[in-house]
Amino acid sequence: MAKLFKFEVITPMRKFFVGDVVSVVFETENGQMGVMADHIPMLVANKDCTLKIVGEKETKFAFITEGFIEITGKKVTAIIDDAEWCDEIDTQKDLESIRRAEEELNDAKNDLGMKAELQASIRRSNARIKSAGMINNRS
Q: What is the 3-class SS of the chain, one letter each residue?
């Protein structure tokens, strides 16, 4: 039997997930990171990514926005702006968002701040689409 630890995903609007898990896997700027029970304490910045939550009996996938993941002796807390279960993602909506953002990027009138926001929107939509694909791949 695998050792469990308490895991929470908290957004400004709600506690998205609270439960005992075997492991969690997410993306950082330096690549993929996994956490299991008794991991050394640290604070990690995560990217917009697919969050893999491995429980005793099932594995769940969610899309999470960038934020911070606090790892302590017995508990891991993801503090992020938003989270969504992968099977609830509307990929058509994301494809349309990418199309609109790319059109706006081509507009020379956009300032650098607007261009950075549009590029971030495209990255986030692409990450959501990738996350939605995880529900089928289960990897």
A: CCCCEEEEEECCCCEEEEEEECEEEEEECCEEEEEECCCCCEEEEECCEEEEEECCCCEEEEEECCEEEEECCCEEEEEECCEEEHHHCCHHHHHHHHHHHHHHHCCCCCCHHHHHHHHHHHHHHHHHHHHHHHHHHCC
Domain extent, residue 57, equals 5-86
Domain boundary among 70, 86, 102: 86
CA dihedral over 130, 136, 137, 139, signed as positive or negative:
positive
User: pLDDT tens for residues 38-81?
Assistant: 999 999 999 999 999 999 999 999 999 999 999 997 899 999 99
